[in-house]
Amino acid sequence: MPQLPVRSRLRRLLSCTLWPLLYAGGLAGAGMAFASDHPLLWFNATYLGLALTIGLFERLMPHEEAWLEPDRETFDNLAHTALTKGLAMLGAAVLTGIAMTAAAVAEPAFQRPGSPWPDHWPLVAQIGLGLVVAEFGLYTAHRAAHRYLGFWRFHALHHSVSRLWVVNTGRFHLVDSLWKIVLSQTPLLLLGAPLPVFLWISAVTAVTGLLTHCNVELRTGPLDRVFSTPALHRWHHSRRRDEGNRNFGENLVLWDQVLGTYFNPPRRPPAEIGIDGRIARGVLRQLAQPFTAGGVRAILGKAPAALTPTAAIRPAPSRGRPRSHQRGGRRPSPR
Fold first, then answer.
1. Nearest-CA neighbor of 156 among 316, 315, 335, 332?
2. Neighbour tally for 57: CB within 10 Å
3. Could you please report the per-residue DSSP string of 132-198?
4. Distance (Å, whole) CA 258 – CA 135
5. What is the dihedral of CA 88, 92, 95, 101, to 10 degrees?
6. Torsion angle, CA of 181/183/186/191, rounded to 10 degrees?
7. Distance (Å, rounded) from C-alpha 273 to C-alpha 235?
8. What is the pLDDT of residues 283-312, one digit of tens each?
9. How far, in Å, CA of 54 to CA of 45, rounded?
10. pTM score of the predicted model
């Protein structure tokens, strides 16, 4: 059997080891940031460093060569990322402030002796439990965003991209992001999870998000059965509804496995992704678009005045699922 050239062998080795290396490196950097005197500053530095590293590998060993072509969305993607990450950092700062106030001023008022959270467990075990709990909320929010028009109108912004790469990781509407935060964080608050669990779940979500959207040739093999990997997430961005309405997990695919939405066939994911509708150009227009009847019609790929405003925002048949996501059709895509 002829031997592969050294460059090809190196690329294959990197494709098999890069995902766990980048994942572990990102979390290690987060751990050092949390242990520092300026955790948010150093966590942002870690996040930026990981994004730049992934961007370099996207050029060296891309999964899809076509996805290297510019799409005129880079500025909007970066702006949405700044908004969503800024929202996350604000939440972390608020949680930190509450924790510090509780410890210094009002600890007795915040104590919850009957809290069901197992705070006697090792921190690693608490983080694992927190991930499973938070992931159910993330899964529920994500699946609802694909099923109901009231949520899809915001989530469609994320699916409107024509290529996947590290820069559109944070391309989410603020309402979409808030919806996921509420459903994932509230159960942890009610259970009495401590601040470090929230911080580590945020770190895992940030690192996983960068990797799931990257345009790097990665072979994740058995990791696909546990984690939300690029291989699985590329199927989720398929324009076919029987493929795209799968793999809703943000960090883990546990709930996809349990609830029957896991999808990982033995073939290459489609390079053509996106929706059939039209997303406005410009960050401010994109944020405003889901709040108008005309904007929703454009998102769904309908003519501007073909229906009355009431009909334009009514969920289509098939158990409340938007028409764009009924079986046998395609998602709306920019024109």
1. 332
2. 19
3. HHHHHHHHHHHHHHHH-HHHHHHHHHHHT-SS--GGGTT---HHHHHHHHHHHHHHHHHHT--HHHH
4. 12
5. -140
6. -130
7. 9
8. 999 999 999 999 999 999 987 754 333 333
9. 14
10. 0.83
